[in-house]
Structure prediction request, 1362 residues.
Amino acid sequence: MSEDPLVIFTPSGKRGRVPAGTPVLTAARQLGVDLDSVCGGRGICSKCQVAPAYGQFSKHGVTVAEDALGPWNAVEQRYHDKRGLAAGRRLGCQATIERDVVIDVPPESQVHRQVVRKAAAVRAVTMDPATRLVMVDVAEPDMHSPTGDFERLRRALLDQWEIGEVTADLPILSRLQPVLRKGEWRVTLALHQPREGAPARITEIWPGFFEGPLYGLAIDLGSTTIAAHLTDLVTGGVTASAGVMNPQIRFGEDLMSRVSYSMMNEGGAGEMTRAVREALDRLSVEIATEGKIDPGQIVEAVFVCNPVMHHLLLGIDPVELGQAPFALATSDSVEIAAAELGLTSVAPGARAYVLPCIAGHVGADAAAVALSEEPEASEDLVLIVDVGTNAEILLGDRNRVLACSSPTGPAFEGAQISAGQRAAPGAIERVRIDPETKEPRFKVIGCDLWSDEPGFDEATAATGITGICGSGIIEAVAEMRMAGLLDTSGLIGGAEATGTPRSVAEGRTHAYLLHDATESGGPRITVTQGDIRAIQLAKSALYAGARLLMDERGVDEVDRVVLAGAFGAHISPQHAMVLGMIPDVALDKVTSAGNAAGTGARIALCSRAARAKIEAQVRRITKVETAIEPRFQEHFVAANAIPHATAPYPHLRAAVPLPELSFNVGGGGESGGRRRRRRSG
Amino acid sequence: MSEDPLVIFTPSGKRGRVPAGTPVLTAARQLGVDLDSVCGGRGICSKCQVAPAYGQFSKHGVTVAEDALGPWNAVEQRYHDKRGLAAGRRLGCQATIERDVVIDVPPESQVHRQVVRKAAAVRAVTMDPATRLVMVDVAEPDMHSPTGDFERLRRALLDQWEIGEVTADLPILSRLQPVLRKGEWRVTLALHQPREGAPARITEIWPGFFEGPLYGLAIDLGSTTIAAHLTDLVTGGVTASAGVMNPQIRFGEDLMSRVSYSMMNEGGAGEMTRAVREALDRLSVEIATEGKIDPGQIVEAVFVCNPVMHHLLLGIDPVELGQAPFALATSDSVEIAAAELGLTSVAPGARAYVLPCIAGHVGADAAAVALSEEPEASEDLVLIVDVGTNAEILLGDRNRVLACSSPTGPAFEGAQISAGQRAAPGAIERVRIDPETKEPRFKVIGCDLWSDEPGFDEATAATGITGICGSGIIEAVAEMRMAGLLDTSGLIGGAEATGTPRSVAEGRTHAYLLHDATESGGPRITVTQGDIRAIQLAKSALYAGARLLMDERGVDEVDRVVLAGAFGAHISPQHAMVLGMIPDVALDKVTSAGNAAGTGARIALCSRAARAKIEAQVRRITKVETAIEPRFQEHFVAANAIPHATAPYPHLRAAVPLPELSFNVGGGGESGGRRRRRRSG
Prediction:
């Protein structure tokens, strides 16, 4: 008796002997090779496509003959006629192993394929979603041996997929009978398993063979905006993105106003919960339309949000988050039915996963940033700042990660700024001031030209120049500082001191005229002393938070800085550092991570392992509560100067000139800079 | 060093040595003695009361000294001052074991106490409810080591109760924070564990120590009426009972009309689901009011119902149950949130349990009857008949149990009877006819006198005599048969043949005048030939179903008969047998089980072991589908005669005279007796 044929799978290198005639898919399962299948080996789904390699493979020590696999069969021919099969490909469930063979499993046939999640960081995520598609053939009912349709479906899952424990919520049970009959006792299920080996839950059911793909929503639920990414659960790719304003804004601009609204109004928290859930429900329909998919293909949603939004999403009154000791109702991750969060148009059994919170002020959004940026895997000490209405700050490396939040307020987003506005066409987003002439030039959103370039006026005629957004005000203030229009303490000099008529008097203080009123009625845009103070408050809070983590870690500097948040992507590192928003570091060590929280949500959507990782990671993070830390106040005061009263900022000063000035305003000073702002979202 | 003291617990007999100073509760837990505690040994709940016994116990081989337990302590004194502690009782968590001692655990201190569930059967059920009360002291939040309140609560359950895996649905999470603070970090939880060792779910939470008791609803959801029993989950006793009409009646009187309504009307099933859930919600409030308890103390609901009601309750379209092969969507038991069934006033996390169905026509109500009557434990062969609109029939003993349902229709409940009415004051419920004079006498509901007794007219003046209910018509027909007014085929004889003017002509047939119209306007009540035919149809179906099970089992007689169902309680065994409703058996072998389905629901409410038992038992029951069995039709036809065309009924004939008659109606016969009725509920 000759030896069983040897099969070697690439790229895994797994190998073993199987009896001649064994289908490739069966051999792959026996050897623990990651080879996909939805139809369970019936030659329908083609997910198990493989590429046999022929010839001599000295590396593997085998020679593969042309007849190493059994002949191309009728099922493969049928599939090829209908859907097409690329040259050299075989269906793993049909092709049988007859002689020694080397079989390559292409990436698209691997369930746990690696996807590179962003070009910048070139970091790979292994697909491991909680929900997968599975096709089963269910036995028809038999009057003489009566069992429920669901019980026979479970039996089929056990027999055909070795899935033992299966549940289904009522919305699925109520759909089961018509779908089974429409599919003539063949159905495809969306099966959700929060962990490998955990009981499986049927979250959607389609008649016959359903190819998919399944989708998930990665939702970054911010105080101001809600952003969603429709994510393909097979490839991990983003099919569509959509965003809406958070309708809770009508109950309060910042988080503390919403907490107050809940405290002052009976049922107020419930109102806010309803508002945000309705918005999410509409958003899920819109994004499905945008992505041209049936919303019923959306089987999961992952949420990241700050603690107040977290509680309001879950229907928990956030009142405790408004007062010390800032106790969360629950800090662990939450896994529930999406229907419980009011998502009515997605798959009837769709699941929702909310990332864990780190602390009372450091939410699931910060956890998502940690998941995306992996400070715990960093060789050097990294400071990660998610700049929003509240800043989430992480500091760490392989040894230890610390986290806090800091109440920056909405100034960085253009709010509380005299000419401030949201980032929208017409808003000034970049600013440069000539250090000699003190003349400005700028760019507005929606136009690629600088204001001093030919054609700028024509290009901006449609939108006009409507105001200044967050990145614009930061650049303006930093440029004013570099151009000597602003002293170290943040005072704007008058025309005499600065030598430019753009330093205009406004009451007892001065302002810098960035853009005069236009003939067409566009507004006069100045940077006022009040604007400077608002930015100083925000940046001092941000710096103080970062500094507190550095104290806790016992360091005076960090190796690199990552700016996260949608807004972080638009901040120029140099200007951020001139302002003193972040600690001194070489400019090329400041990078942007884009919407890291949203990326973290997508990673959690694509990978159960990532969920487990962040659930464990948040417990290990050292939490620092800024609200009760006396040094926070000290750091906050010292950070009021631009860039800083005491920190030397050597890297910065080596890169850009920072004139040391002090304007005397003759009693016109104001004390807002030392007013400690209440925590706000 | 002397030996550790010996402690012997009675009635369990468990014994062991513990170090001197060990509290009795601790010793009980170590030795696996069933001693209750809600407060976890803090001297608050008094559930762990024990009665130490002093003196010489030769049986146990110990002498118990007066100082065997440590002295009465301040906690016990405080409890005694506040709530009172019976003489001889100690708090098990306070009293310490110092020397050899015998300690009796009284029944009320046992969690798993036995309760005798009904005097008739003297069968004991061991209390083992899925939900229990547990008090915990939760650590206060610490800003420096932030964790969620829920996470600290879980920690407390692990530390104080060794309960590892604990979940809570959103409605509980949203209540957690205010309740923890109101209770000053001491709370009492309702903890639901479907099985010993399964993850626990918090279903309600009270500030501080909450004594209970917890309640459950045992709900018998019938086609016509919904009956609920508010059951104390500590004692197993019924605190209140209430019933309402099933509002689905407006969509169809019987089950098949409701299935038709669903088939003919888009969204019809949903309408019926809403109607029944709203009724259940109201009923749960009413029964709590009736029982003078807070509906929030209701933490569980157990449902028993026929398959169509089962599906409509769960929101599943019952259309498949209206046609062969009568496939259930799910046949296993269902365990879900009561809120999913629309119960809004019970505890926010309350659970619902629906007993398993046996087959497409044999529902959770039949399973409940099996749970209550335990045919699988019977030494002799018992036939159990749950008489309602549909009859559920069980036949079995230790060896094997069989089940079927039979479409008797509503005649046994007084419907489809010319003077028929529901069982209500004014309805004739008992009938006797003198075999000599052929004169009737009867009793009506609401009056203890027979119609020929003095004072009857006065006693019934208020209600009048309004019609005849199910038990009345059965007795009337049986009495007519015994008095020679009716022949074996079911024909009513005319005045000439019977010799009484009460045999009145009605068209081409005859009727028996039971009660003439009164001066006060009461109706003339006759038993018509049509009434006889309706009863014949119903009883033939019932007999044929029973007979089919007997065939299947290979027997020609049974050892005893149990009549279940609210209606079963009112049927006289003798009259039922004269009619041939049930097979021949000695009259003293026919007993009534009362509302066995409701009793089964209560047992499932009080005992997880009972749930597991019936879940396993339904799989073992042999299901017989009457609708497709050709012999059913044969048995049905043969059973049309009264009592039966071929079965000899020796026990019956030995007990009562049954004149063999055959009236000739001269072509006035009708063929309704052979019209096969559609299955109805």
Remarks:
- The longest helix of chain A spans residues 529-553.
